[in-house]
Design goal:
Blueprint (H helix, E strand, L loop, with lengths): L2 H11 L21 H18 L5 H11 L3 H4 L4 H4 L6 H10 L2 H16 L3 H23 L6 H10 L3 H11 L16
C-alpha cells in the first residue's frame, strides 16, 4: 500500500474537526460542536458502555465509533430534516474513502458497516454510544433554554437497544450537566 494514500486519508479525517453538527442549528445553536468533538465523546461513552455490557473488546467499539461519521468529511453533516429531501449514499462515500487503504481500509469499512447496520454486538453498542452522546448534548442544551432539544431526547430514547444505554439515559434525564464540578471549586480563605 502506498503511504501517500494513508497520508491523504489522515489529512481528510482532519475535516471532521471543521464540520459542525448541523442538526443543532435547527434549534438555534449558532456554534454547534464539530463532528470530531461528537466522535471523541461517543468513543469514550462507547468504551464505558461496552464495559457495562460486559463486551469482551471495548476498544473495538471505540474504533467503530471513531470511524462512524467519516463520510461527513466529504458530504458534511446532513441533518434529519435535510435527509427528507436529499438521498445521501454514505456507504458509497466510506467505500471510496477506504478503497486505497488495502487491508486497513477493508477493516475500517467493515467496522463502519457493523456500526451503521447494528449487525454485531459491537455495532449495537457503538450506535447506542453515538445516540447517548447526542442525548448528553441535548440535555445540556435543554438546561440553558433550548426547549426543542427535548425532541432529540424523545427520539433517542426510542432508539436505544442495550440495557446499559437505557439505564444511563434514564439517569441522564434526572441529572444536571453542571453537577460534576459544583464541589470542585477551590476558594481562597
Amino acid at each position: 500500500m502506498a503511504n501517500k494514500n494513508i497520508i491523504n486519508f489522515i489529512f481528510e479525517m482532519k475535516q471532521l474537526s471543521r464540520i459542525k453538527h448541523e442538526g443543532w442549528r435547527m434549534i438555534g445553536i449558532e456554534d454547534p460542536e464539530s463532528v470530531a468533538d461528537h466522535s471523541l465523546r461517543s468513543a469514550q461513552i462507547g468504551f464505558i458502555l461496552a464495559k457495562l455490557e460486559e463486551y469482551e473488546n471495548p476498544c473495538e467499539v471505540c474504533s467503530m465509533i471513531v470511524f462512524h461519521d467519516m463520510a461527513e468529511s466529504r458530504i458534511g453533516d446532513v441533518h434529519r430534516v435535510a435527509n427528507r429531501y436529499i438521498e445521501v449514499e454514505e456507504e458509497k462515500v466510506v467505500e471510496e474513502q477506504t478503497r486505497k487503504l488495502d487491508e486497513i481500509g477493508e477493516e475500517i469499512f467493515e467496522m463502519w458497516k457493523q456500526a451503521e447496520n447494528r449487525s454485531t454486538a459491537a455495532g449495537i453498542i457503538a450506535r447506542d454510544a453515538n445516540w447517548l452522546d447526542m442525548a448528553f448534548t441535548a440535555k445540556a442544551y435543554m438546561e440553558i433554554g433550548y426547549k426543542y432539544a427535548k425532541d432529540w431526547m424523545n427520539n433517542i430514547e426510542k432508539s436505544l437497544k442495550t440495557k446499559s444505554a437505557k439505564e444511563l439515559f434514564n439517569e441522564l434525564k434526572r441529572s444536571d450537566s453542571n453537577e460534576w464540578w459544583q464541589k470542585l471549586k477551590k476558594m481562597k480563605k
